[in-house]
């Protein structure tokens, strides 16, 4: 049975960089955002259900999802946000579960997710790591990568209760420092993962 680490936290906090550092140390990486993009590829059942629910114009002329249009429409109310979850989460969960099932005994698998709560957990990790950063530092990272505007980042941070995740995590990393500090944090996470076999939440 593999050892499973969940890495969660706000956009721009450095979750992906931490996941990459752990992969360099030998972990198998799973990115929930990448899975979410894969399940809405043109021709997929999930994309067809989204079009039926939110309109044809959420796709471009090539049939690809316009994520900004979907986000503006889906996050307009609690009802449409819940609908988005019902249409996408089962496929995302099934793919992540399949990747976890394919991991070998003794593997360390790091799953990067934007949101995680112990109350509705299905990944059943051995270790939960919350990565955070100040709004200013997160905004600078997102701007450098060109992923979204600072206004979009503020809206996303306000939409979700990231502090609740922080309090439920086994390890909190405040990632306002540079690459060296995050590398040291990755070393600590890796050591904890190697020591977690037989002691994590999944086996409690």
TrEMBL record:
PROSITE patterns the record matches: DPCK (PS51219)
GO annotation terms (biological process): coenzyme A biosynthetic process
Catalytic activity, as annotated: 3'-dephospho-CoA + ATP = ADP + CoA + H(+)
CDD domains per UniProt: DPCK
Catalytic class of the enzyme: transferase
Any one GO cellular component localisation term in the record: cytoplasm
UniProt pathway: Cofactor biosynthesis; coenzyme A biosynthesis; CoA from (R)-pantothenate: step 5/5
Presence of keyword Mitochondrion: no
Keyword tags: ATP-binding, Coenzyme A biosynthesis, Cytoplasm, Kinase, Nucleotide-binding, Transferase
UniProt EC number: 2.7.1.24
Binding annotation for ATP: 12-17
InterPro entries in the cross-refs: Depp_CoAkinase, P-loop_NTPase
Principal cellular location given in the protein's record: cytoplasm
Cell compartments where the protein resides: Cytoplasm
GO molecular function terms attached to this record: ATP binding; dephospho-CoA kinase activity
Function: Catalyzes the phosphorylation of the 3'-hydroxyl group of dephosphocoenzyme A to form coenzyme A.
Record-stated family: Belongs to the CoaE family.
The protein's name in its UniProt record: Dephospho-CoA kinase
Species annotation: Acidimicrobium ferrooxidans (strain DSM 10331 / JCM 15462 / NBRC 103882 / ICP)
Lineage: Bacteria, Bacillati, Actinomycetota, Acidimicrobiia, Acidimicrobiales
């Amino acid at each position: 049975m593999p050892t499973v680490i969940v890495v969660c936290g706000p956009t721009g906090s450095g979750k992906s960089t931490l996941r990459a550092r752990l992969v360099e140390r030998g972990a198998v990486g799973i990115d929930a955002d990448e899975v979410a993009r894969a399940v809405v590829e043109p021709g997929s059942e999930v994309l067809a259900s989204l079009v039926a629910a939110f309109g044809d114009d959420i796709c471009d002329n090539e049939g690809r999802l316009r994520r900004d249009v979907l986000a503006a429409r889906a996050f307009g109310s609690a009802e449409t946000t819940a609908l988005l979850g019902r249409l996408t989460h089962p496929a995302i969960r099934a793919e992540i579960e399949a990747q976890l099932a394919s991991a070998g005994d003794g593997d360390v698998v790091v799953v990067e997710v934007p949101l995680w709560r112990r109350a509705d957990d299905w990944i059943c990790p051995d270790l939960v790591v919350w990565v955070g950063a100040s709004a200013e530092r997160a905004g600078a990272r997102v701007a450098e990568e060109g992923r979204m505007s600072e206004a979009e980042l503020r809206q996303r941070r306000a939409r979700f209760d990231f502090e609740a995740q922080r309090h439920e995590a086994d390890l909190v990393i405040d990632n306002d420092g540079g690459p060296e500090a995050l590398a040291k944090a990755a070393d600590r996470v890796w050591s904890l993962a190697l020591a977690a076999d037989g002691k994590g939440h999944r086996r409690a």
